[in-house]
Structure prediction request, 542 residues.
Amino acid sequence: MQRQAQRGLLKGMNPRVTLVTFVVVTVSLFYGTFYTERLGQGLALARGVLDPFLEWYYVLLVAFLLLFMVWLGMGRYKNVRLGGDFEQPEFSFFSWVAMLFAAGTGVGILFWSVAQPILQFQDNPFIEQGMSPDAARVAMRLTYFHWGLNGWAIFSFVALVLAYFSYRWNLPLTIRSALTPLLGRRTEGVLGDVVDVLAVFGTVFGIATTLGLGVQQMNAGLEAVFGLQSSLLLQLVVTAVIMTIATLSVVSGVKRGVRLLSEANFWLSIAAVLFLLLFGPTQYLVAITIESAGDYIQNLMGMTFHTNATRGDAWQSEWTVFFWGWWLAWSPFVGMFIARVSRGRTFREFVMGVLLVPTVITIVWIGLFGGTALYHELFGNGGIVAAVDSNIATAVFATIEAMELGLLGRGFSAMLVLLIATYLITSANAGTLVINTILAGGDPEPPTAHRLLWGGLLGLLTAVLLMAGGLETLQAAVIMAALPFSVVVMLMVAGLLKALHRERYAARTGERVEAPREPWADLEDAGTQPSPVSDDETHKLH
Prediction:
């Protein structure tokens, strides 16, 4: 087992992983605070150098994960359960889906559901003429692509692997556990520490990036509703308030704080959708959502493997590379959070739930918000394109203003500000809990003092990235943070396949063994090691 400090400030934590990650984050904070301009320039330079490589590397990795998850959910291992053979899910289906969506894409989709369709509507490499009805359909298709099945394949893969090794093999709920079939007891040493450090590094910068985007949007909402002038100072104040609430709520744990907040913003999201259906261009919204969803499904494979090989523009780097980097950077955080709430579900149920349900919700959300904005640009008074080009964070509120609903629209804007706040709090407290779970060696209830510490550090890092240059710096930071963890993802694929193969072998030979209570002692000799498959599960794996 991993070593945890028994006393002192690091009591209950893995001392090496905690100290290394703390030093890395602290150095980043120091450098970003006193050399803000250099930080922004350095991230931009690194991104420019790596973009040609990432344009095909991220594409290939994400395409593989999508196909791999479909195979896991429909293939020979579809009946494997994340836990004991007869274990039932801990949360109801509604609570489960609410937490999946809130932690996974809540903040990001609020920011981009209007901004991305409007930006793609103006110009993208797949249309000849922008600002046209055909451009609107393609813009919706591209937005679905970056928020649909491919991204959720990343989240669902990491989550499934973590849940499988934790609940079926009784290993700690950390990233390193997924490499046990490959490294054996070496995962308890330096190699395992490196893996967990990379996971925390990606998670910290992924969360800080998304919080930065959400804070910018909330700033725009406060200006639209209350007339508060948009400024860096206001963004820093909002960051401090959000992180204070999130850090305090995370102390209450998943079953109370995170679950209740997730369900609250899920209901607010439903209210927002119904509002647009009632007061927006209903017929157009239904039509564009259905049409663009069909267009997305029809072009899915072509978009999945698109690498921008024959074009000289920067679209692939600015959009696909950024979004795949964002999903990868968030995957340790969201994956571990989804794993924590998914115990007792089979591979098939898990894949259907985590891959398909959030994708359908996302399509509906983008169809209504993005469709409303496109309708007013094509057939209404417009003005949304100009607002987005001036300040991308104002996209949603410019759309509401274009609806010309007066006091009703102002009330809807206020509700969206509240929704953004609840999504920010949910993402921040879930992320803080996950970071501390990794640092505590998989303990689902890490020390309260460290939850408070890392909540504060996340808030400070978000503030530093906002000061370093806004959106471009946030995008560059998340892409760089995702790159090292992408190597760990490939190793996790190999580890899962090796473990599943051993399960299938045990099922075929009729060997009756129980799940080990301790990590595998030595997996180099697979023929002598235990398998978690019991006789009751044997028929499911043939």
